Amino acid sequence: MEVSKITKKEDKKGPKVNSPQTVMYVEVNDANFRNCSCYSLTSNGERLFDIAIIFAANINFNVSERRAYLYFNPNVDRVLSNLDTYVRPVQNQGTKVLLSILGNHEGAGFCNFETVEAARDFAGQLADAVARYGLDGIDFDDEYADYGNNGTTQPNPYSFLYLLRELRALLPPEKIISFYYYGPAASRLTYQDLVAGDFLNYSWNAIYGSYSAPNVPNMTRSQLGPAAVNVQQTGESTASNLARRTIDDGYGIFLCYALPNTDRRAYMSAITRELYGSETTLAAGCLQNWPVENDGDTKPCCCSCAQIK
Q1: pLDDT > 90: percent of the chain
Q2: Going by C-beta distance under 8 Å and a sequence separation of 6 or more, which residues neighbour residue 214?
Q3: pTM, two decimal places
Q4: How many structural domains does the chain have?
Q5: What confidence tens digit (pLDDT) does each residue in 115-144 have?
Q6: Is the pLDDT of residue 265 over 70?
Q7: What count of other Cβ atoms lies within 10 Å of the Cβ of residue 104?
Q8: Is 2 contained in some domain?
Q9: Is residue 126 one of the residues assigned to a domain?
Q10: Which domain CATH number covers 181?
């Protein structure tokens, strides 16, 4: 299967043309996702973040049905139940919004589907979420599955590849599938004639403060991010150096994690000076705390409503 590679929005002018994409994970248990829309490049006013990721929904396990299901905790649910408040302002500036999927200690993970049908079932739940909430794709993070809990099986060689193949078949070609290069899935990227890079758009390093390109078969440098920073913990000089290495080595992604509700414009400028030759601007009065009272378009639904089955 040939997969259309997703490219960033082509800016009409400015330093982001043919430059790396900046990706930001937002931990919505303590940060306001809309704050992604507050940052831009000083040189031309374009958005800073090309991809912003809601971190994180979960892959849970229904013991009685022996079935994996998609689960939203109350904070993820609040974001998705108030799209016009938190998600659309980010998308409207040209940023792609992905939903990250993370294990939840229940034994269900991307690497232990035992059949194609089981992988297809979960892929269908993910595709439904992308369509239902108007998202731009799915990000996979193979952590905290605790494989073996609840009588589940250990990782096998084919599960993750089946899941990627089934999800790609269900999503429109412009939708993104990305992989946080970590966990058992990182060593299970080929099986028979299946190759992860044929289904993924991007993959990035998962160790903050380090520089290491993911080893994903059939992916090019333009699709990979070797640099990763935690914007609240990784030092500013380290972040700047990692950005410079990304440019020098011709990679296409620079990964950031943990955007807070406070001003990080100086920190981001240390990165954007290297990536784009520009300072970072923070819109005045834009940052908001979390949670926000009176969100707007709908009230969050109960947790049981946030299980897509």
Answers
A1: 88
A2: 179, 181, 186, 203, 204, 205, 224, 225, 226
A3: 0.92
A4: 1
A5: 999 999 999 999 999 999 999 999 999 999
A6: yes
A7: 21
A8: no
A9: yes
A10: 3.20.20.80
